[in-house]
Specification:
The N and C termini lie far apart (84 Å). The radius of gyration is 42 Å and the shape is elongated. It is built from four helices and 14 strands. With 339 residues, the chain is an alpha+beta fold. Among the domains are: 131 residues, Elongation Factor Tu (Ef-tu), domain 3; 91 residues.
Length: 339
């Protein structure tokens, strides 16, 4: 009896554990049935059937929603040589003109090198001396030849040949002086180029967005110093549906309006003019369209980078979607498509 009684606690524990497992499984199943997990489709693609991104079409035009405003000209200026910054002329927000010098590196040593090279290039004393020596040597040779014509053998032939050699030597010295002067001019150009590398000029008319380095800081070749942008002309970029690819061409006029989906502002009524500049030759498998962007005039800088806009392309051609076949020579290809 003691043997059987010692097994009852273990049987009790096993039964209770099985009951807990079964009850937990039933609870989990019931919770999943009441809260089904939403499956995500990794191949979900965007198209213009979504009312929020609906492409609007009218005879001779197509309007693309949710286009992005981007800067057309934006550059981070860097130095071409190591050195110490002597001055950064503009401050953040300042306007600069094309070819305006805006960053200066310490250039005392290079200025001295340029002045020495310039002085050598302008010095033609050796050339003048060689020309004078050649004239004297020529006169002596001609006098010896004239004397021997009058009195044959009056001047030994060795003396005559020595005079002839002196004349040739003087001529060669003149050519060497000319060569040295040419080299000196080239050294001057080299020194001027190195001196010019101590200053950075604005590549276009624009505005300083950010100053990254300041006076007194040391820089190496390629160190970013200043960011320059231009907002007078911006790029408005969107996706052109495949139905409109053969209607829109580069150079077509566009009208752009800022678009705030969740608010109404007066600025949204203003229209900005531009032209289509680029149409990608590849169709995106996500948007079912090709990337297209236009250059848009922005004289008052109201089109700000990062805003959404709607762009109406006035192609003036037949209504979109009427093409039945894709032209063989169109150059449009489907990204990821197989032959």
């Amino acid at each position: 009896m003691r043997v059987f009684s010692s097994k009852w606690p273990w049987l009790t524990v096993a039964a209770l554990s099985a009951g807990v497992i079964v009850a937990g499984g039933n609870f989990t199943l019931a919770w999943q049935n009441q809260n089904p997990r939403t499956r995500t489709n990794s191949s979900l693609q965007l198209d213009d059937s979504d009312p929020e991104v609906k492409v609007l079409r009218a005879p001779g035009e197509v309007t693309l929603p949710k286009c992005s405003v981007k800067l057309l000209d934006s550059v981070i200026l860097a130095t071409d040589r190591p050195g110490l910054i002597m001055n950064v002329e503009p401050k953040e927000g300042d306007e600069v003109a094309k070819d305006q010098a805006i960053v200066f590196l310490k250039d005392d040593a290079l200025v001295a090198i340029y002045e020495v090279a310039k002085e050598k290039a302008e010095n033609d004393i050796n050339k003048q001396f060689a020309e004078a020596s050649a004239a004297v040597a020529k006169a002596e040779l001609e006098k010896m030849l004239e004397t021997n014509r009058k009195v044959p053998g009056a001047i030994p032939s060795t003396e005559v040949e020595r005079a002839r050699l002196n004349f040739i030597k003087a001529q060669l010295q003149g050519k060497q002086a000319e060569h040295e002067q040419v080299v000196a001019r080239l050294e001057t150009k080299k020194a001027a180029a190195e001196l010019k590398s101590c200053k950075i000029e604005a590549p276009f008319d624009g505005k300083v967005r950010k100053v990254l380095k300041h006076k007194g800081e040391a820089v190496t070749q390629g160190t970013p110093i200043l960011e320059l942008i231009s907002t007078r002309i911006v790029r408005v970029e969107g996706y052109l549906p495949v139905e409109d690819l053969w209607s829109v061409k580069r150079g077509d006029p566009v009208e752009v309006q800022i678009d705030f989906p969740d608010r109404e502002l007066e600025i949204e009524k203003e229209v900005f003019q531009g032209k289509v500049y680029f149409i990608d030759s590849t169709v995106s498998p996500v948007t079912h369209g090709a990337r297209v962007w236009a250059e848009v005039q922005n004289p008052d800088e109201k089109l700000i980078e990062g805003l959404y806009a709607k762009m109406t392309i006035k192609h003036g051609r037949r209504a979109a979607g009427t093409a039945k076949k894709v032209p063989a020579a169109s150059g449009i290809k489907q990204a990821g498509a197989t032959k």
